[in-house]
Amino acid sequence: MSGGDPEIVHLPPGFRFHPTDEEIITHYLSKKVMNRSFSASAMGEVDLNNFLAERAKMGEKEWYFFSQKDRKYPTGMRTNRATESGYWKATGKDKEIYRGKNCLVGMKKTLVFYRGRAPKGEKTNWVMHEYRLEGKFSYSNLPRAAKVCRC
After folding, report:
1. Residue 71 pLDDT
2. CA torsion, ordered 120, 123, 126, 131, to nearest 10 deg
3. In this predicted model, what pLDDT tens digit does every residue of 35-82 receive, in sequence order?
4. Most CB within 10 Å of its CB: which of 15, 74, 84, 97?
């Protein structure tokens, strides 16, 4: 990089960012949870509750980003997945993510976007994969400082 915007990263032609599920958990998500100021040039931060998928103007079909979970109720554990134009609905069974053969590091949940309000929303072709830490990386096993800024 030289001059200009320090946020712009110049990559060689043909470069694609396609991390494995295990790489997302161990190299990105766990570091973000441990250090809130951690940033990855290939991943931005998005507020999903105020982000409208229709307004996205990115050339790729896959995007990677961090998003802080919004709680449905202030004192509860349920996640709010509603947006201005619709909602994200979980589908299928969560997939276990392993490092090596026996080390569980995370889970992957698949969500589909529906326009409108539940339960009469209209299904779209927008699919999102949500990752969470498990095993030695799980929330209950993290240092107290990391729990304060849970992402």
Report:
1. 75
2. 60
3. 888 888 778 787 776 765 544 444 467 777 888 777 777 777 778 788
4. 97
Q: How far apart are CA 117 and CA 134, in angstroms?
A: 31
Query: Is the C-alpha dihedral spanning 14, 52, 8, 130 positive or negative?
Result: negative
pLDDT at site 8: 58
Which tokens belong to 94?
Answer: 């969560």
Q: How far apart, in whole angstroms, are the C-alpha atoms of residue 81 and residue 68?
A: 11
Per the CATH hierarchy, to which homologous superfamily does domain 21-51+61-148 belong?
NAC domain (2.170.150.80)
Distance CA 5, CA 73 (A): 39
